[in-house]
Amino acid sequence: MGGGLAAGALQGLRVIEMGQLIAGPFCGKTLGEFGADVIKIEAPDGGDPLRSWRLVKEGTSVWWQVQSRNKRSLALDLRQPQGQEIARLLIAEADVLIENFRPGTLESWGMSPDEIHALNPGLVILRISGYGQTGPYRDLPGFGAIGEAMGGLRHLTGEPGRAPVRVGVSLGDTLAALHGTIGVLMALYHRNVHGGPGQVIDVALHEAVFNVMESLIPEYSAFGAVREAAGSALPGIAPSNAYPCQDGWVLVAGNGDSIFKRLMGAIGRQDLGDAPDLVGNAGRVARVDEIDTAIAAWTVVHTVQQVMDILAAARVPAGKVYTAKDIAEDPHYRARDMMLPQVTRDGYTVEVPGIVPKLSATPGSIRSSAPHLGDDTDTVLAEAGLTTEQIGLLRTKGVIR
């Protein structure tokens, strides 16, 4: 389906995914793209809610087509003791377990880490939750948006003096998933290379956000400085901002010393480029309003493309603010296989994002499209040793679908 079909770097890895929506499943998606066999356990009565989130085509969310590619769907009721027994049977033969339930859920099913490791000592268990598995907030409900708020991100988004705004995507969930993926790979390396035991990876949504907050806390610790929202500007680094054009906006990053001189030459403000006090960043920060005004006065009389062309010739980093349409039509995205056609199990073709990161010898790939609920139930259970009669009885009891 695109992206290359070489053997994946994680070929032979068995992953059981119990999570739903975004954080846990995004980790499963990433592992699956690089060859892992990801078995997604879903509730028989509707499955993962992401199946119906946002825009729906042929009864299924197109977001689902990205998030669940390269996965197999097992419709299994984990609330029933027989469902829990089957889960334990699968976990006993797996390398990785992913879950993003509220802390204590696995324990209530008789699947605490200690109980699971008694079955499978080498299992790597990834647990993603709002506040982590310990601490005074562990039992509070937490979504990605709350993690973004507690992690410090929401306070910095938006315009000064106005309400904090959402980044536009579920960034808190995705950051937690990426940290979880890193943790899984490190734990597998420790197990496979150093002979270590399986271990538990505890990822809290707010901590994953907090981990990318740069100098937020050192600045507060050293100076008592509380960083505030600054709109599109990059506080303390100048010039770096969004500037208006005749037909849109362009981002310009002229904050390198030599880049700043070239930028000022390109916009006809060599006086600023030659000013002794603007040679370094500290001086430019002191006069940032003046510099931003000068850049905006130049961009506003040009189109976005004119600005891009002029600044590219001057070797000044600049970027158009892309919409989905811009991305879909951009030749660079297509040249790097970042727009791939995927045939869904409903028979239509939809373009989806390509694979990141790009590995030279074992690139990721789309081996299978996102499954319908329970598509792989019989196959997965047969692989686990259940007979046709046993599978039929479980279906009759509503344990599977």
Automatic annotation (TrEMBL):
The keyword Plastid does not apply. InterPro entries: CoA-transferase_III, CoA-Trfase_fam_III, CoA-Trfase_III_dom3_sf, CoA-Trfase_III_dom_1_sf. Keywords: Transferase. Pfam families: CoA_transf_3. The keyword Transferase applies. One of its GO terms (molecular function) is transferase activity. This is CoA transferase. It comes from Hydrogenophaga crocea.
